[in-house]
Specification:
alpha/beta
Length: 334
């Protein structure tokens, strides 16, 4: 394989100085590759800390605007919104999800008033709105009703699109939802509204802090989502799920979680010519943050390494709660 050997060839030559390492790096990342999620809540002038997610807060819409400005200033091109819905507005049929004046729709309209040069993504799932914390409608025995859920997801998607949402992101893993939502958007005249689906979303143990943030954990209790989210023992099944979503009209796909699923990202990248977004989920984020706080390693370096690993595996963009923070660090990465 090699015609020359040591000492004529020294692998360390290209690593010996920073400019050389940067010049020949195989994988690069910039703030343009990062998506910042935000949690929003009712009220005014609110910034509530989330105990299980260090440095992450729930914002009222007025304070959210300032955070969106920070994202833009850092070079980030898209944000992802999640609502914390008050208990009184939760129901068994998740009707609040379809309300054109619900929290998420009002937030989107307020952001759009400012003509920011940033894309707005909104999660499409029912877990913030249901009494049992599930992503879809359930029957009296707690079984997910896939087809009944699809009807609500379509109405929810139209409400979001009418409010100005740029990207619909179905995350609930119902069968057939991308096709139904795409048809609804086309019929409603929302031809350029993008669908970026959570095509491979695993029933992971790493979603706990997120469920605290949106207020679904106490409602979900000890119930599992194993019957509709993917089995974490399976990798190639993701090829099937992604293929279905592409055939139904997805413009790009999300793989969630990311850190423990690099093999899945790589498999999908090799199989399909479609943009892949890796989602560094709440548990992954909090693990790195808390370990850094305890001095186990340098937080910034560990986050950058994790983001590079997602890109190296084949992701073009990354959803991470550390997006704004890391965007400021990337210029100094070595």
């Amino acid at each position: 394989m090699f015609s020359l050997s040591y000492p004529k060839k020294r692998a360390q030559r290209l690593r010996s100085c920073k400019w050389s390492r940067d010049l020949f790096a195989e994988t690069c990342i910039s703030p343009k590759n990062l998506i910042q999620p935000f949690f929003i809540t009712e009220g005014n002038n609110i910034k509530n800390a989330i105990d299980t997610m260090p440095s992450i807060y729930r914002y009222s819409v007025d304070n959210l605007i300032r955070e969106v400005e920070k994202a833009i200033e850092s070079g980030i091109k898209a944000i992802l919104l999640f609502p914390q819905i008050i208990s009184d507005k939760k129901s068994s049929n998740a009707s609040e999800a379809c309300n054109i004046n619900n929290l998420i729709c009002r937030a989107i309209r307020e952001i759009k008033k400012h003509n920011f040069d940033i894309g707005i993504m909104a999660d499409v799932a029912l877990d913030p709105y249901t009494l049992d914390g599930h992503d879809g409608i359930t029957d009296s025995n707690g079984k997910i009703l896939n087809d009944a859920t699809l009807d609500i997801l379509c109405k929810q998607s139209i409400s979001l699109a009418e409010s100005g949402c740029d990207v619909i992101a179905p995350s609930e893993m119902m069968d057939g939802r991308v096709g139904r939502i795409r048809d609804s958007l086309e019929q409603g005249g929302f031809y350029n509204t993008k669908i970026i689906s959570y095509s491979a979303k695993y029933a992971s143990n790493f979603y706990g802090p997120f469920r605290d943030a949106v207020g679904s954990k106490n409602f979900l209790k000890n119930s599992s989502k194993d019957t509709y989210q993917m089995d974490f023992r399976n990798a190639r099944e993701a090829i099937y799920e992604v293929g279905l979503d592409i055939s139904e009209g997805a413009d790009a796909i999300i793989i969630k979680p990311a850190m423990l699923y690099l093999d899945v990202i790589s498999l999908v990248k090799k199989e399909f010519n479609i943009p892949i977004i890796a989602y560094q989920v709440s548990g992954e984020y909090s693990m790195l943050k808390i370990a850094g706080e305890k001095g186990i390693f340098d937080t910034d370096s560990a986050f950058i390494e994790s983001l590079i690993s997602f890109k190296r595996a084949g992701a073009c963009s990354i959803i991470t709660y550390a997006a704004i923070e890391m965007a400021k660090k990337l210029a100094f990465y070595r």
